[in-house]
Amino acid sequence: MGRSGIYLLGSLASGIATVFALPLLCVPWLARRWANRHRDRAGRLLETPLAPRPALGAPGRRASADPATPRDLLWLPVHALTGIAFGLPALLCVGNVFLATVATPLWWAFDYEDRPRLFIDVPVTGWGTALTLGPLQILLLAALAYVAFPPIARAHARICLAVLSYSTAEQLADRVEVLTRTRADVLDAHGAELRRIERDLHDGTQARLVAIAMRLAVARQALSGTPRNEEFLEELLRDAHEGAEEAMTELRDVIRTVYPPILADRGLTGALTAVTARCGVPTRLHVDDLERVPAAVEAVVYFAVAEALTNVVKHSGATEADVRVSRTGERLSAVITDNGSGGADPRQGTGLAGIRRRVLALDGTLGVDSPAGGPTTLRMELPCGW
């Protein structure tokens, strides 16, 4: 009853706000945010899992091309009507319970003309009336709320989801758009990754190997001459040895960015333990039993957590962070939170944008909740039932 009552009173308040702010809410991106807010409330009340709808401000999405925009605009008058119609009885019920609660012990504090009335038109003129009709009104209205509030709230929530839910054709069209955009992002990311690997190998490892080969060639020539300069040879061989070790280190770094060896050696839990242990902010890690997870999913979660914690250290000013990884059915979720200053925006900078590209490449979802002042919560979900 409590959840339903809060839902109905909130619907009444937002329905009245919709009436007064209707011209402003007709702006498509505001209508989308307003509709998403009510859609999420309805889903929570009905305990129905809902796929997130992207904001109109997301790259590649235009209001005129988005099949959900007409539904967002239709929801405005529908909610103004249903929110007030469904919420007003709840307000009257709650208000009269409050009136009886106040009138029962304090009826005498009011002037005779202003004394409260119970059961609509029965004035409270004495303790007998107060102690009989007051509790009776409270009990009857509480029973009415217990019986009526949940179905009324669920009815409003179903209307909300019926108006704002995609049709099959709209779901298909939106899915095609998302996959098209994701494929383009993946191809761009793949090309950038190949160029980065080529540049690292060309400018770093290859240059060091060339230098090693030159030093060894000079050393070979020195060995063939007479007399031998042992100090000169020792210096050349030492430089060649150090250069070989540096080249191997750079090569390992390049390999690690392709697929971290720690994942193969220690699994996802061990790899995340190492990442959180190295983080400059105290970080708690909780990993459920994940069973078997595809290697591609493990790599995405590892890189995403590592990048997210790097952002926490660099930008958030947080004093603690938390990483939780769990699996429900065929979906693996990872949630990274911190108590920093907030304000993280995936549309700015490359850190969150890179995480989003990796997650979308595997048909996953990424949500960022980072209000100004914090805290910041980054939630990703990935399919792992391949």
UniProtKB/TrEMBL annotation:
It catalyses: ATP + protein L-histidine = ADP + protein N-phospho-L-histidine. SMART domains: HATPase_c (SM00387). The keyword Calcium does not apply. Pfam families: HATPase_c (PF02518), HisKA_3 (PF07730), Sensor (PF13796). The chain crosses the membrane at residues 6-31, 80-110, 130-149. Residues 296-386 form the Histidine kinase/HSP90-like ATPase domain. This is histidine kinase.
